[in-house]
């Protein structure tokens, strides 16, 4: 007996920030929307530390309840390989640390109230399309849709040709940090191409992480924890998307958003705001495409996201690529020059947590200093300084 095929107007793969915001936007516009999540609980496993600005949340139209906000850090300190410091006052940037599992469940509740459906424990194994329909394969079932939004994260990004860094996240108990201060450690030997980070959520509890190229993340974090005399409460692997966006987000009736499209900041891998905006814009454009019975409206999503973030992402990618080629000695010298200049004060006064271009142009925008470091003017640096 032939199995009946399920049908949706819009099918969304992945119930994280991008997928849930897309579902809310589409459902609020009267579109029949179903989200398929492979895990059996929204928000788990938690693979993001939840650092975001209140301004970014406001732009997304979100006001997370107080029980979701774990901390309000007001300072950041950056350490060079030899422990030279750059301190930033982050009061004006109004940064919060979110409980990511609770935050995702909060977004799921909004999507359900808007009229979307969410199916848990449903792993999508394949997506197909023809000029007139798109199709998901879930277990032994097929689901037909007018549009599919792939918001399934880094695995989809890799399948589409994107590259990730190996990453790991620990929750630890310790006493070397201050609750008000985020810490970032640069060490090209331990974390090549990236860094360690410490995000406190209580006086003695912090989220710590590392990412890098060809790094054994658990061994590196175990060594860091031992050096800091901390005690792990949770350990997990968490690949970091920081290599820029896919060239195209939209392919016919299938579009990608969030980490699946590479919409995480190249400097830090953070994607709640930028990937969330991708999901929201994708949901709006999808609704228009379905209502007007023309998938060409789906392309508005890609155009609008790139207009808002394209230049910022290009600048961030160039800066991270240039920084990743610096030796420990060059990073130490750069820290020394920046630390003795007006740049930390200017970043504190003018910086934007969601847009790092201000900090980048202040830190890298002096060719004399880069020459003093003995750096060759690679293509990345030429493009950055221009």
Biggest β-sheet strands, sense, barrel: 8 strands, mixed
How far the N terminus sits from the C terminus, by CA atoms, comes to 65 Å
On the 0 to 100 scale, the average pLDDT is 90
What is the oligomeric state here?
single chain
What's the total helix number? 12
Describe this structure in words.
- This protein has helices at residues 17-28, 54-59, 100-114, 154-159, 217-227, 272-291, 299-324, 328-339, 343-350, 357-364, 367-372, 379-385, and strands at 6-13, 33-37, 51-53, 69-71, 75-79, 85-89, 95-98, 117-120, 124-130, 133-138, 141-150, 164-173, 181-185, 196-200, 205-212, 231-237, 240-241, 250-251, 254-256.
- It has 386 residues and is an alpha+beta fold.
- Strands 1, 2, 8, 9, 10, 11, 18 and 19 form an eight-stranded mixed beta sheet that branches.
- Helix 1 links the parallel strand 1 and strand 2.
- The longest helix has 26 residues, at 299-324.
- The model has no long low-confidence stretch (mean pLDDT 90).
């Amino acid at each position: 007996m032939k199995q009946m095929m399920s049908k949706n107007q819009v099918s969304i793969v992945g119930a994280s920030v991008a997928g849930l915001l897309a579902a809310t936007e589409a459902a609020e516009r009267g579109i029949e929307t179903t989200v398929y999540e492979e895990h059996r609980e929204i928000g788990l496993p938690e693979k993001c530390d939840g650092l975001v600005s209140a301004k970014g949340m406001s732009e997304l139209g979100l006001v997370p309840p107080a029980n979701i906000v774990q901390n309000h850090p007001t300072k950041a300190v950056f350490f060079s390989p030899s422990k030279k410091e750059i301190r930033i006052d982050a009061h004006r940037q109004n940064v919060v640390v979110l409980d990511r599992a609770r935050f995702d469940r909060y977004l799921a509740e909004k999507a359900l109230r808007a009229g979307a459906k969410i199916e848990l424990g449903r792993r999508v194994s394949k997506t197909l399309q023809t000029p007139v329909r798109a199709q998901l394969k879930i277990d032994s079932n097929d689901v037909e849709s007018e549009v599919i939004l792939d918001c399934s994260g880094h695995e989809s990004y890799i399948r589409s040709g994107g590259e990730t860094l190996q990453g790991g996240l620990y929750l630890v108990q310790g006493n070397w940090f201050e609750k008000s201060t985020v810490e970032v450690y640069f060490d090209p030997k331990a974390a090549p191409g990236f860094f360690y980070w410490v995000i406190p959520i209580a006086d003695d509890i912090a989220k710590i992480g590392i990412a890098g190229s060809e790094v054994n993340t658990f061994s590196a974090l175990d060594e860091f924890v031992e050096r800091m005399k901390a005690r792990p409460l949770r350990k997990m692997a968490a690949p970091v998307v920081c290599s820029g966006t896919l060239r195209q987000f939209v392919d016919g009736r299938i579009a990608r958003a969030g980490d699946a499209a590479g919409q995480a900041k190249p400097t830090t891998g953070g994607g709640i705001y930028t990937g969330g905006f991708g999901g929201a814009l994708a949901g709006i454009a999808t609704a228009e495409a379905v209502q007007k019975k023309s998938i060409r409206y789906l392309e508005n999503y890609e155009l609008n996201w790139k207009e808002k973030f394209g230049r910022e992402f290009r600048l961030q990618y160039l800066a991270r690529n240039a920084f990743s080629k610096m030796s420990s000695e060059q990073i130490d010298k750069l820290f020394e020059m920046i630390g003795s200049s007006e740049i930390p004060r200017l970043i504190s006064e003018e910086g934007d947590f969601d847009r790092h271009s201000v900090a980048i142009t202040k830190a890298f925008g002096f060719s004399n200093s880069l020459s003093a470091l003995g750096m060759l003017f690679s293509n990345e640096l030429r493009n950055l300084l221009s």
